[in-house]
Amino acid sequence: MLEKIVSAIGTNEFGASLLGLAREFVVSDQCTVFAFSDSGRAPLAVVAEGESKAETKRARNLALEYISGEFKHDPMFQLAKDVDGSTTRVLRLSSSDFPSPAYRRQFYEGPGLASEIAIIGRYQGLRLYASLYRNIEKPAFSDEDVTIFQELGPLILRFVGKHAEMERYVRHKSSPGTQMSNERREQMLYHLRTIFLSDCDELTEREAAVCARIAVGYSVSAIALTLDIAPSTVATFRKRAYAKLGISSQNELFAHYFETVRQLQLS
Questions:
Q1: 57 exposed, middle or buried (CB, 10 Å; 0-12, 13-18, 19+)?
Q2: For residue 230, what is the domain's CATH number?
Q3: For the chain, what is the mean pLDDT?
Q4: For residues 241 and 223, what is the distance between their CA atoms, to the nearest angstrom?
């Protein structure tokens, strides 16, 4: 299993591999990983995975809500910000550990989650907050489960830290766009999608939306999160779009639309 997760670092399979590793030791229905930098900006959603398609969709929706601002109401966010470089914290949590009733409803009671194991630590310059969840119909995580992840925690953080570094690099390689407001970024994506549809009548709306996000540096995982589709579906849309556009790689797409993206960033 360790070989599988190591080989999945930096790929779309990492989330499923991480959840699979956790399930080798304890029953887990969902996992998420968030990475925070020292800048204080919103966290990066590194993993949002569930045991089933429905649970994966739920995990992604919750991850989007979390990074959109709800992280500010999570006491674990502050703990992740304060953790030092040599410490790995493993905590067993339930909805009662979160003081905000609205937060409990949104992230526990509403989606039917009852118990969480949080693994908090650092990897180089990143603060990491990894969580495993159980659905409400299952028993809560036990002291034995916590002990298991106290031993596994540092190893898991190294895996997710390396993956987070690769995700962050891909998402920020189009650096001018990273400084935009959400509203400005959405406007830019709308214009790019329109341009792709104009350039190729055969493209569908979804294929154009995927291409627009690729053009500004989104990773497959980021596209999946923002469009609420599976990474495999993103890959399918990308393959179809490339064929219709007469290109075969991301580099070719960048080359064809670099000037367009640059002008939109400067406008």
A1: middle
A2: 3.40.50.2300
A3: 86
A4: 15
